[in-house]
TrEMBL record:
PANTHER family: GTPASE DER. GTPase that plays an essential role in the late steps of ribosome biogenesis. GTP 2 binds at residues 204-211, 251-255, 316-319. CDD domains: EngA1, EngA2. This is GTPase Der. The keyword GTP-binding applies. The lineage of its organism: Bacteria, Pseudomonadati, Pseudomonadota, Alphaproteobacteria, Rhodobacterales. SUPFAM superfamilies: P-loop containing nucleoside triphosphate hydrolases (SSF52540).
Length: 458
């Protein structure tokens, strides 16, 4: 838990630009079109020696009905509630608008710590707006140019004492959270202990139900779902707690096949999807039960494997499936056939809509993570290697038998093994596969990528 700053303001004032500047990696989308950024989004911000959490919000809209604007506003109020302080951004080039005023009033009423910022302050065009901003009654506006990086030292000197105050409060109340990740040799299932949140990405085709699923897991209307196409466009992360275990989930609506939105957004979204896979430890590939294992689903799963992530396949909309018994058999068969590189991967059926199966999904994520972290003792490995070679010796190209001498686990996350042997180049693909499948089965490592390297003894 760190100091949390919410960035709020109506659309187009430059919130995403500022968020990106603070977070430093492009987790957010920026575009000229108003309202492109609609969800809560978190990032780890860096400003000088300050590290804090920044939450970027949807635009504050002056609407109270259940329209999109109304929901965005509720979302923003929630962001303000979860933050220690709130950076209220206005556009100094446009000046103070009635919408700005309404929300200045809301922020005042909430009694939260507000830092007023007038953005786009580079150059003279901003002078008039800056003076208007004083009139909001929220103190002296901080002059910012998110785009040009102006005003960052001033922002730092405002945030520094606020952050120190918040940290002091947290230290008083927080329980001991440091836990051991445990690098020593051990067998069998480990009790998962994490010092950092477990990073999970939910990826899948548009309309697979990613936002619905994450809302369910969160138990609140944190993301917007609805019939509006492309409502969740970028990689966002949300944090939750599974019985005391901190989890961070990336939701991506990236990886869209058809450009329903502008191409520029499209490109950003796809790379956001890829980025989410890279950040993640466990990737949940969410399929739609009605159209499972489409080309795009397979590509995502393969990408996750190549990136060395733990993978769980979740088949969504199971509530709407008429013939569950036959379907599950078919899905299992297809999964083994189409994703041999992830043999034994956990396949769970869920309904994001009703919440059925989510406990099993949670359990599968933890198991996949556990397997991904598994370590096998060297003595056991070598005993095993001996038996494998005896059962099925490696080929003898040109009559020269290859000797597999020694084996050890070089890494975890995902598990990687080194076999010392004579003539490593002569080991065939199929023999490597034999060993990998054997490792998977005999040391109970289903569904995780396994790396195997053949090395000659120097
Ligand atoms: P948001 O809707 O509040 O998140 O706003 P964006 O970050 O998407 O920015 C809206 C537009 O304002 C984009 O075209 C940005 O390039 C532009 N913008 C953001 N910050 C600045 C700034 O400091 N100066 C100027 N001139 N333009 C900016
Ligand atoms: P995303 O594009 O992957 O984020 O998908 P959404 O979460 O927006 O869901 C797309 C559509 O599928 C929405 O109309 C949801 O109501 C619907 N949907 C999501 N999950 C389920 C489910 O478990 N069962 C059924 N029947 N419909 C679902």
């Amino acid at each position: 838990m760190s100091f949390t700053l919410a960035i709020v303001g109506r659309p187009n004032v430059g919130k995403s630009t500022l968020f990106n500047r603070l977070v430093g990696r492009r987790l957010a989308l920026v575009d000229d079109q108003p309202g492109v950024t609609r969800d809560l989004r978190e990032g780890e911000a860096k400003l000088g020696d300050l590290r804090f959490t920044v939450v970027d919000t949807a635009g504050l809209e002056d609407a109270t009905d259940d329209s999109l604007q109304g929901r965005m506003r509720r979302l923003t109020e929630r962001a303000v509630e979860m933050a220690d302080a709130c950076l209220f951004v206005v556009d100094a080039r446009v000046g103070v608008t009635p919408v700005d005023e309404v929300f200045a009033e809301i922020l005042r009423r909430k009694g939260t710590t507000v830092i007023l910022a007038a953005n786009k302050c580079e150059g003279r065009a901003a002078d008039g707006g800056l003076i208007e901003a004083y009139g909001l009654g929220l103190g002296e506006p901080l002059r910012l140019s998110a785009e040009h990086g102006e005003g960052m030292p001033e922002l730092y000197s405002i945030l520094k004492p606020l952050a120190a105050e918040a940290e002091a409060r947290i230290e008083e109340t927080a329980p001991e959270t440091d836990v051991d990740v445990g690098e020593e040799d051990e067998d069998g299932p480990r009790v998962p202990t994490f010092e950092k949140p477990l990073q999970v990405a939910v990826v899948g085709r548009p309309n697979a139900g990613k936002s619905t699923l994450i809302n369910r897991l969160l138990g609140e209307d944190r993301l917007l779902t609805g019939p509006e196409a492309g409502i969740t466009r970028d990689a966002i992360s949300v944090r939750l707690d599974w019985d005391g275990l901190p989890v961070r989930i990336f939701d991506t609506a990236g990886m869209r096949k058809k450009a329903k939105v502008q191409e520029k957004l499209e490109k950003l979204s796809v790379s956001d999807g890829l980025r989410a896979v890279k950040f993640a430890e466990v990737v949940v590939v969410l399929l739609d039960a009605a159209i499972p294992f489409e080309q795009q689903d397979l590509r995502i799963a393969d990408l996750a494997e190549r990136e060395g992530r733990a993978v769980v396949i979740a088949v969504n909309k199971w509530d709407a499936e008429p013939d569950k018994n036959d379907k599950i058999l078919m899905l299992r068969e297809e999964c083994e056939r189409l994703l041999p590189q992830l043999r034994g991967v956990r396949l769970v059926t869920v309904s994001a809509k009703t919440g059925r199966g989510l406990d099993r999904l949670q359990e599968s994520i933890l198991m996949a993570h556990d397997v991904w972290n598994r370590r096998v003792k060297t003595a056991k490995l070598n005993q095993w290697l001996g038996a494998m070679v005896e059962a099925h010796p490696p080929p003898a190209p040109g009559g020269r038998r290859i000797k597999l001498r020694y084996m050890t686990q070089a890494k975890t996350r995902p598990p990687g093994f080194v076999v010392m042997c004579s003539n490593p180049k002569d080991i065939s693909e199929s023999y490597s596969r034999y060993l990998i499948n054997g490792l998977r089965q005999d040391f109970d490592m289903p569904g995780t990528p396994i790396r195997l390297w053949m090395r000659s003894q120097a």
